[in-house]
Amino acid sequence: MKIHLSDHFTYRRLIRFTLPSVLMMVFTSIYGVVDGFFVSNFAGKTPFAAVNLMMPFLMIVATVGFIFGTGGTAIVAKTFGEGKEKRANRYFSLFVYIAFGLGVVLAAVGIIFARPISAFLGAEGKLLEDCVDYTRVILLALPFYVLQLLFQSFFVTAEKPQLGLAVTVSSGVTNMVLDAVLVILLPQQLKLIGAAVATAMSQVIGGGIPLIYFFRKNSSILHLGKTRLDMHALFKACTNGSSEFMSNVSMNIVGMLYNFQLIEYAGEDGVAAYGVMMYVSFIFASVFIGYSIGIAPVIGYHDGAKNFTELKGLLQKSVIMIGAFGILMVLIAQVFAYPLSKMFVGYDEKLLSLTVSGFRIFALSFLFMGYAIFGSALFTALNDGVISAIIAFLRTLIFQAAAVLLLPMILGIDGIWYSIIVAEFMAVVLSGIFIIAKRKKYKYL
Description:
single chain; about 85% helix
């Protein structure tokens, strides 16, 4: 039975509707983990450090997809809720075209300045050369990666979350197969390039297939076609998506800050250990991200339809489910910290020990992370981009930056791992304050 945005959502229906988005994000994180596994075990520690050093920059330039994906979804879903289908499709087309164009421009700029950017982030010698080579190959596919991120949100709005999952699986399988072929079989000096090519090709698949689907006649409620420049809609989408933009940019700026601190406290091993934690933790965090992506269009639709009873039910159910998943994830992370770390850095006993101890501390943040992610996503879905951006900005930049700078002075390298816990807890408190303060306006409490 097909589930529509306008339906009443029980726990079972809510899980069924958001599950494809959750699986989509989990699978995306898993093939990212596989990518890191091949680089670390077959290319070596320096290429693995290069990937982790440049990943924050690459994710920052890709945030255009998050802006127009989450910010645009809120507008399109609300417009559908108001019964204006043609206008909703015009908005959808506008966001896709603008996002792709910006992706082309950012890719060109990034390729030209790859070397000075790598040097600024602390790379030198062999590490610098690896960073430049990897970055330039990845950026060739940036416009399609931007679309991949954008369509992850719009597949849900199109009432086709299962199709979004299928595209993500296709993209991931492409990456993993090409990793296995290129990274293993190519000569040592080309293994990192092979990993970059595998990732780039998967992004072309992830962004290209949805582009073709929505251009053709299809059975969804969204279609790409003629549009016109609407600065008000673009500004509103950017405002709505500013939280996701801020969250991703801030998160990756803080990632660079983590790397600076880790180089000081633990050298190249610290950067490699942090890279393992980021790969593995994203699998857990992707559950919360996927749930937020899946439920956002539902919230936007019922806000547009002024169905406040349904909004209240959605918020209450989300609080309960996110809490249960958070506890479960902490338990799983504690049990599997060693085997997951060994999978990446089992060849270096000192690095393995550092990674396991750090991950056991870091994993406690899952108790709070889900609520912080959902809190920001809730206000994006309600077209309240300012509040969403404030939560995202404080959570991913101010709270984390302050913690990662101050706590190591007291706790040493363990302070770096504890900083994420402190930041997520503060973000939950802040989200709760805004939810209570806005309860009369949105009538969800």
